[in-house]
Design brief:
The structure is a homodimer of 180-residue chains. By secondary structure, chain A is α/β, with parallel strands linked by helices. Chain A has six helices and five strands, in the order H-E-H-E-H-E-H-H-E-E-H.
């Protein structure tokens, strides 16, 4: 059976007892999460989320790219989210290569020059996470009062470690950001 | 209790019986999915997926943006995925606004000129889906033999409708692509 057939079979079963007919369009918990695409990171499990509760934005690394920022603006402006989370994780593939390695490999394999392609690898997990949170919080189109939390997911334990929060008025949360 | 506290409480429970300690880095079903960030679309449920099986790439619309292509290249080249899926869905927010509406609103609310920001809305769901599948299949850095399937998720029923496949050698699947 092809992968497409496997998925269609599973989907037919899902439709038999489909419970989400009446969900509203805006996420019911008013949150949006930017996270790495990594297969080991299941945001429903790690965050205790149900279907319909959050916008999920994912890419290689869990980075605040222009595309992620575009998605966040649509999320808060048109669909009412009011709190953002960014999740990077231990053992991330983005920590394991250099741009030039992948560019050279792609150029050799495809015959098309890949030297201008920035794959956005990084070498320091916490520094990268802080950069993403800052990029979102400081974007001129994102309101300063939207809290942006940065978390590291530990693939060995399931732990979501709170590293930083920006845009948070509450004193305890600011402290958590400062001491992380 | 703040949203962050709620999530940390749920996450502590998750860690108690964390079952995924020994997952490999490459997705075990060797697939990557590009899908809309919509809260109603739960890819685990709709595809019959488990944690660890697939790379999940999500943005507003489920679009083959430069960032999604970056993620797909990393996915197949460094982490061994061999089949791609693109999922857009009925009732998508991207069908409900014009670029100029959102640009004007943002400019008025933030005082920063948003007239150059392309939020990538679209007006024809199937045409958009076909465009995304084609953009991925025709990208010079994506091998032509990787099948790319385009599916529409129906938020009212849970149905994943197969609309198009490119890069598929199997005759039946080509036919499904042609007649969809």
């Amino acid at each position: 059976m092809s992968k497409l057939d496997e998925i269609r079979t599973a989907n037919q079963q899902y439709q038999q007892s489909f419970p989400w007919r009446h969900l509203d369009v805006p996420p019911s918990r008013n949150i949006a999460i930017v996270a790495c695409m990594d297969a080991r990171l299941n945001l429903y499990e790690a965050f205790g989320l149900k279907t319909g509760e959050a916008h999920l934005i994912r890419n290689a690394g869990g980075l605040a790219t222009e595309d992620a920022i575009r998605s966040l603006i649509i999320s808060y402006k048109l669909l009412g989210t009011r709190e953002f989370f960014v999740v990077e994780h231990t053992g991330c593939g983005m920590l394991s290569f250099q741009n030039s390695d992948l560019q050279d490999k792609l150029t050799a394999d495809t015959g098309t020059d890949a030297s201008g392609f920035d794959f956005l690898p990084f070498s320091d997990l916490k520094a990268s996470l802080r950069t993403q949170v800052d990029k979102i919080h400081s974007n001129p189109f994102i309101p300063k009062e939207i809290p942006v939390h940065g978390l590291i997911y530990h693939v060995e334990s399931g732990n979501l470690e709170h590293v930083v929060s920006l845009g948070v008025k509450d004193q305890a949360s600011e402290l958590a950001g400062q001491i992380a």
